Amino acid sequence: MFKFAVTLSLLPLLVAGQYNYPPPAPAPAQSSPAAAAAAPSAPASSSTQVNIDVGAGGNFIFKPANVTAANGTLVTFFFPDGAIPHSVTQSSFADPCTPLASGFDSGLQNSKQFTINITNDATPIWFFCKAPTHCGTGMVGSINAPATGNTFDNFQAAAVKIGANEVTIQDSGFASGGVGALATASPAATVSASPSTSSGSSPSGGSGSDATTLVVSSSMGLVALLAGLTLFA
Ligand SMILES: *[C@@H]1O[C@H](CO)[C@@H](O)[C@H](O)[C@H]1NC(C)=O
Ligand SMILES: *[C@@H]1O[C@H](CO)[C@@H](O)[C@H](O)[C@H]1NC(C)=O
Ligand SMILES: *[C@@H]1O[C@H](CO)[C@@H](O)[C@H](O)[C@H]1NC(C)=O
Ligand SMILES: [Cu+2]
């Protein structure tokens, strides 16, 4: 009888151990990543525009080639007039010259502009030009690439390493979608010239990207732009 009573008295402890009772305080649940992500902290109305010249100066480059763009930023690529068509085709860090499944693709273009909308600035976006031989000579670009590790420089070096072994990618025109950025409209006739043509930014991007960033909703942004342009004057 005494033994039975002891066994009964242990029951709550056993139950507690098995079902982890009492439950943890609700505080950790409120600060979970899911709850943090759902918090309406990020302004949805960021109206930033970034312009990138495709094949700037007749070279097989994107200019700038490495930019930072927050969620909601519209990144517009300008394809110049000229005999050589280029493309903006999403790829991956691991395979610079291979289209990413469900990635965006402008298709080979001339005299057009093409815009993507950044939807996840926490994910680097890698892209290349699918015109034969262009990627293997380093015609690649990145958005929100990290400063260390998988950097833009390492991405471009990987493309150049592929070099003449680049596999020719068939052009099937515009593909909507994208990972980390969305393309919703096919390339359209150019309606505004890219200001980056005269910015003198370096081909590899870097600090030059600041000069082509227009924060349209903020006068501070314009001041920053003017300051950036002054640096190149
Ligand atoms: C860009 O995408 C965001 C959602 O990710 C949306 O709220 C915004 O309206 C889009 N901007 C344009 C110009 O389509
Ligand atoms: C941008 O959007 C992505 C996807 O919703 C989110 O994971 C990320 O935290 C957002 N970035 C910022 C700075 O809010
Ligand atoms: C590319 O841009 C990122 C910011 O998005 C910056 O941190 C990085 O240093 C740049 N890399 C190169 C090689 O310019
Ligand atoms: Cu090209």
Overview of the structural elements:
Strands 1, 2, 4, 6, 9, 10 and 11 form a 7-stranded mixed beta sheet that branches. Strands 3-8-7-5 form a 4-stranded mixed beta sheet, covered by helices on one side. The N and C termini lie far apart (95 Å). It is of the alpha+beta class and 233 residues long. The chain contains 6 helices and 11 strands. It is globular, with a radius of gyration of 25 Å. Helix content is 24%, strand content 18%. The structure holds 2-acetamido-2-deoxy-beta-D-glucopyranose (3 copies) and copper (II) ion. One 2-acetamido-2-deoxy-beta-D-glucopyranose binds next to helix 4.
Question: Key terms for this structure?
Answer:
233 residues; disordered C terminus; Blue (type 1) copper domain-containing protein; disordered N terminus; Ser-rich/MCO-related; signal; binds copper (II) ion; four-stranded mixed sheet; Immunoglobulin-like; seven-stranded mixed sheet; 24% helix; alpha+beta; Cupredoxin; globular; binds 2-acetamido-2-deoxy-beta-D-glucopyranose; single chain
